[in-house]
Amino acid sequence: MIDQPSASTRSPASPPARQPASPAQRRLKLYRSSDDWQDQPRNGSRAEQVPPVPPDLSGADLRKQDFSGRNWQGINLSRAYLSGANLSAAQLKAATLIQANLYEANLRDADLAEANLTDAHLIGADFTGADLPSAILRAADLREAILVKANLNHADLIGADLRAANLSLADLSEANLMRANLSRANLSKISAYAANFSRAQLWQADLIAAQLAKASLYCANLSGANLIRAVLTGSTLVEARFERANLSYADLSRANLSGANLRSANLRGANLSRASLKQADLSNANLTGAILFKADLTGAILTGAILPKATCSE
């Protein structure tokens, strides 16, 4: 029988092997030492002629970290975890953030021009004053996000979820929000000239004093929405739903409301001059003091509509 070594003669236990850093962690260590990745030294005698390669932090765990003011133009942050991170005033132009998690992240005053945030998780994120012109936010989850005074000019928000988001004073000029869900969103005083809201959900949205001239709201659902003093001059509202919506003193001159559902809508003092209301349903609508100069009401349903003091001539 072989004697077992005593405890005093046994070799000390080897320390557990350290787990190797993930590729994303190694890349983060490389790039976080400099505020400007474009200043990283490059090898080769012709380095000054070779454009820098944007850093790749795809899949990295960057939760609750401070990257404020960082210059990360063109960076790849696809599927990165950035919930609660501070990216205020960060330079993220043309960055790739596909499916990134930015839950409640701080992106105030950040530059996200031409950035790709397709399918990104942005619930509760703060984009106050952020620049997002021509950004791609298709199918992004922006529920309860803050986009006050954000620049979303020409942005792609097709199918985005913006329920209860705050977009007050945002610039959505020529942005594409087709099929976006903006139910209960705050869109007061937005600038959305020629924006596309076709088939969008705007149920009970706040659009007080919104600038929507030349916008398309084809088949959009604005039931119960507040559009007091909104400007919809020349806009396309064909077959849109406005049941119980408040359009008092709104400017709908030259708008196309053909086939629109305006049942029980409040159109008190609204300007509908030269508007097309062909086949529109105005049942029980309040048109007190509305301006209907040269409006086309061919085939419109006016059952129970209130029309006292409505102006139909110059």
From TrEMBL:
Secretion signal span: none
Record's compositionally biased regions (Low complexity): 1-12
One Pfam family matching this protein: Pentapeptide
Disordered: annotated span: 1-59
InterPro entries: 5peptide_repeat (IPR001646), Pentapeptide-BTB/POZ_domain (IPR051082)
Protein name: Pentapeptide repeat-containing protein
Organism: Pegethrix bostrychoides GSE-TBD4-15B
